[in-house]
Structures are given as C-alpha cells and as structure tokens.
Amino acid sequence: MKLMLLPLLLLVCAFTHAQRLDTPNYSVEIQQLCPEGEVQCQNVVYKGTSKVSGASIELKGKAWHSLCADGVTPCRFLGYQFNNGRIRYLVHESGLLQVIGRSGSVLVQEQGVWDYQQSPSSNTESKAKL
C-alpha cells in the first residue's frame, strides 16, 4: 500500500509553476521545472511569442540572483536569464523584458505585467501588476 501511495504523492507534488508576462509586443511564458523551494533553479523554459508577427521561440535557461557578500550564496531574486547563441534574454522580476544583442546593444526593452499561474493541479489564476 505504501508503495502505491509514493508515486501518487510524487505526482500530486510535481506540478509546474507557470508565469506569463505580457508586454506591448510580446507574450512570454516562464516555466520553472524544478522542485518548489529550489532557490537556484537551473531548469527554466522561456516561450516567447511576438504579438505582431506571431513568431515564437523556446529557450532553456535559469533563475537569476544577485550574490550575497560572500560572493557565492544567492541573495536577491532578479528574474530569469536565457541564451540563444550570443543573444541574451533577460526577464526581470519587475516585469521588464530585455533582449541583449551580441555587441551588448539592447534589441528589445519592454515593461510588462505578470500573470501568475499554477498548473496542472490548480485552475486558479491571480494577477499581479508590478
């Protein structure tokens, strides 16, 4: 009986945290594929879609933190970062979306609004304007 409950418990606990960022020209979905409570999640998925062209991109990345005084321990959560070759995608906690080109030039910079969701075990959605 205990062996049957363990997979069921793992299934119930293993849900994805999804966050959607809506900017004037882009819709971005962020999925953290790490266990809840893991501070430095290294398995985050970015799904971005242009509201103008409909073009989309999916990238893998990680959570982004400032470091504490020791230079090792993660302190403040800053957002998420993703790389597509030498192009960096930064999704800030504040809702700012930035795409940084090869030379460091800013290709996209748009402020958005977060829509937080939990799926598939929760159908409730709460909206937070940052």
UniProtKB/TrEMBL annotation:
Domain of life of the source: Bacteria
Signal peptide: 1-18
Keywords from the UniProt entry: Signal
Listed name of the protein: DUF3019 domain-containing protein
Species the sequence originates in: Rheinheimera mesophila
